[in-house]
Amino acid sequence: MAIYFYRINDGYGCFSNFARYDFQLDEKKWMTSEHYFQAQKFCGTEYEEIIRLLDSPMKAAEMGRNRDLPLRADWEQVKDDIMRKAVLAKFTQNDEIKDILLSTNKEIIIEKTSNDYYWGCGKNGSGKNMLGIILMEVREMLSTNED
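Predicted structure:
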């Protein structure tokens, strides 16, 4: 059986990057993993800090997706590792959701979104589901550390 997530108020909503579980990373506090991920598109520029301080993950996502801003040249090469770093920090620093992630055991985790074929499964299920894959990788790392 697979575990599906998307909305933060649904079951397993804590898996969403929009869920508010703050963490420390790169010597700064981040409200959500969405804030961190979007800010890293502009690492070393003023936009990184502007995004970090926005009051909602939706605003962070909107600003991060703004192609009028100068996207870092290596973004496509580093985005998976940046997401992995954010998700790992979020789940290692919040015991409540760490326990939820570990409780999924070996289940497949899928971000059920119809409009994202990279991070989610896409409308027809053919998406890469990279966020789900990263969550399963982080779960494996955390379960190894628990033993």
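Summary: The mean pLDDT is 96.
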